[in-house]
Amino acid sequence: MTVPLPPTPVLETERLILRPLEARDVPAIQRIFPQWEVVKHLHATVPWPYPDDGAATNMVQCLEDQAKGLKFYWAVTVKGSDELRGRIDLWAFDPERRDSRGFWLDPLLHGQGLMTEAADAVTDYAFRTLGYPWLYLTNSIANRASGRIKEKQGAVPAYVEPHGFVSGPGERQVWLLTREAWLARQPV
């Protein structure tokens, strides 16, 4: 059984502000999200081609989940601008769940280490503030950049399984990152 989450906090990194997702983010999501580079490695349930009301429809579900304490949703913003440039999510801890965090980023910002920075902030929050004992993290085997973020964080491969993606059937890598492994890699 999962314990409801507290309200989504604002998290700050060197270059980013992660703030709670809000309805005002719909236009930015609808502009950025429906790009093949963003969606191709996501779960097959993501509609493709992305409908004109896709962001608005998804926002209703996200805000409901957030209000029920089921999931954190952060808008990834670059300091100096409050505009959403990506999203990172964290599920309430459930020992049976094998996917704890998800993210996507505007392709114009890829390759700058920003998603690693955002993932580190959310991971640290999960372990230090919420006391999660572990996170299971997943990515398409073909999404090497996402896998590299998990490696940098100290996650270890747990297993590979068949999975459906927007781009079609493939394999999903499941990683395990423990609280102990995370804290051992962090400065005191």
Please name the defining characteristics of this protein.
3-stranded antiparallel beta sheet; alpha+beta; Aminopeptidase; 188 residues
Can you characterise this structure?
This protein has 188 residues and is α+β, with helices and mostly antiparallel strands. The chain has one domain (11-184): Aminopeptidase, CATH 3.40.630. It is 30% helix and 29% strand. It is built from 6 helices and 8 strands, in the order E-E-H-H-H-E-E-E-H-E-H-E-E-H. It has helices at residues 26-32, 36-39, 54-67, 114-129, 144-153, 179-184; strands at 11-12, 16-20, 71-78, 86-91, 101-105, 134-140, 156-165, 168-178. The chain has a 5-stranded antiparallel beta sheet, sandwiched between helices. A 3-stranded antiparallel beta sheet has the order 6-8-7. The protein is globular and about 45 Å long.
